[in-house]
Amino acid sequence: MSDVFEGYERQYCELSANLSRKCTAAGAVDGEQKKQKVSEIKSGIDEAESLIRKMDLEARSLQPNVKAALLAKLREYKSDLNNLKSEVKRIVSGNLNATARDELLESGMADALTASADQRTRLMMSTERLGKSGDRIKDSRRTMLETEELGVSILQDLHSQRQSLLHAHNTLHGVDDNVGKSKRIMTAMSRRMSRNKLIIGSIIAVLVIAIILILYFKLAK
Fold this sequence. Notes:
It is a single chain. This protein has helices at 3-26, 31-60, 64-92, 98-220. By secondary structure, the protein is an all-alpha fold. It is rod-shaped. The N and C termini lie far apart (132 Å).
């Protein structure tokens, strides 16, 4: 539930209870005291209407599933306010004599105040249930955020591992290139050594043939 709506709701419940007490007190006095009480009650009713309008605007700005429950509560608040207005009209009416006023205070107003008290009790119970639902929603949201943070952490770890694998792959690729270069160098050296052996063998063969020829010619003379 919206914290703003709950704040308005607490203010309205306190104000409604205060207005009910003032209505009871105003019905028991006459003259200037009665006018002063009625003036205070009318001012309180205007404030209550302002709070109901604020709750209505706040409720309509919320998600549909929450809005429906809050608007249902708001209808009960409006009914409670209408009862208070009816009580004020009966109080300011100058046509009631003392007996009728006493009967009204003892019967009708008592019933109205009892009904208002019952309504407020039901509204407070509904508020408590909605508060618990709001707490469950907050817990679910907190769990969702924790899960999201865990998912982000896992993705970061996977990204770090991917970077490590890419670095290792690049290192192995560099080692493979170096091994290829070393192989080519060894092959070239082997070929050069073979050519050198061939050249040395040829030189030795030429020297041996030359020595044999020299010895042959000397012996022939």
